[in-house]
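Posting this for the archive.
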Amino acid sequence: MEIVIVPTPKDGGRIAADIVCGAMENGAKMLGLATGSSPLHTYQELIRRHRESGVSFAAMSAYLLDEYVSLTSDQPQSYAHTIRAELVDHIDIDPARVFSPDGGAEDPNEAARRYDATIAENGPIDVQILGIGLNGHIGFNEPSSSLASRTRVKTLTGRTRADNARFFTESAEVPHHVITQGLGTISDARHLVLVADGARKASAVRAAVEGPVSAFCPASVLQLHPHVTVIVDEAAADELELAEFYRYTTEHKPASQGY
């Protein structure tokens, strides 16, 4: 695991975009996308490179981490709609090749199984962008999630529903259930890139990076993956015990070694 501490969230977005673009140059075809505030600087940088430098996503397909149960892709609060507004509508990726769990399915459990099978059949995902919740969740794998879990229906904690209420007119509108890629599904990706910023994320980042590997902090599963890059700004890195070591290794890494 490589931990990269950057001055600002915008700097983190540039590094994450470097990873995505470098993977595409090396033949990557599948990109895993997260929603939420953490990846926004990455997406804005990818859009800028597409517009100003001609970076093309035409050969790519993309897979979202999760979706609310009961929301269809045309509803503004759905993650399928959100990712179109934040990224897909601004680059040249084929919208028909951007996939998400079917939150409006009559049988969400079957929809979850189908989505997991689709990723397995077409994968692995080359680069998976991740954020982290205040309680250490990635995707919507809340604390107590199995570290080997597959895509399934999960119940959101009250804290997560409260965190996401800002996207709804009323907090009562936030669905109680989601379809989310499991921690095992996420770990199948070749390269995991977690981006976090702000002091509110500091405790979760510390638990994920330096704490024990435990279902109590689902993001700690990243410690078991062979290729992980964690990109955090100074505020999110504030509780890291080995922060100076991470800064030192980033500064002195071999020139030939990428992220």
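Residues 2-236 form a domain with the Rossmann fold fold (CATH 3.40.50.1360). The two ends are 10 Å apart (CA to CA).
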